[in-house]
Amino acid sequence: MIIGQVKSQCEAKTSADLCGGLIGAYADVVYGSIQDLDATPLEVCEGLSFCPKQINQTELDDYIQTILEDRPDDNIPTPSGQSTYTVLHLTDVHIDLLYQEVTNFI
């Protein structure tokens, strides 16, 4: 069944000879890869365009409520009035002891 679907989709885009050669050369590899996927049959079917995509319709208000369920509280701290500090945070610093300014890479 899968080979037939692939062949019909391929032939809709290119020649039957080319499709036959590609399928003959790669069918076992592709089929083995599909078997190794961590996916449901529906995901494989949709991913290979063998069946129509399933659309789950959700009401906007329900969707917003679902997203906001794990939202943290709005407990924004009040400024303390204490002194603040200026901090310079450097990351991914590399030291090159052989670096010379205006040196060509080559």
Structural notes for this entry:
This protein is mostly helical. It has a domain of 67 residues. It contains four helices and no strands. Helix 1 crosses helix 2. The longest helix has 21 residues. It is flat and about 75 Å long. The mean pLDDT is 78.
Task: Give a quick summary of the entry.
With 106 residues, the chain is mostly helical. It has helices spanning 2-11, 16-36, 41-47, 60-68.
What global shape is seen?
flat
| SSE topology string | HHHH
- Residue-averaged pLDDT: 78
Strand content: under 5%
| Beta strand count | 0
Sheet with the most strands?
none
What structural class is derived from the secondary structure elements? Answer: mainly alpha
Helix content: 40-55%
Q: How many DSSP H or I helices?
A: 4
Instruction: State the end-to-end distance.
Output: 57 Å
Oligomer: single chain
Mind telling me the C-alpha Rg? 29 Å
Indicate the low-confidence ranges by residue numbers. Answer: none
Q: What are its keywords?
A:
mainly alpha; 106 residues
Write the layout of secondary structure elements.
Layout: H1 2-11, H2 16-36, H3 41-47, H4 60-68
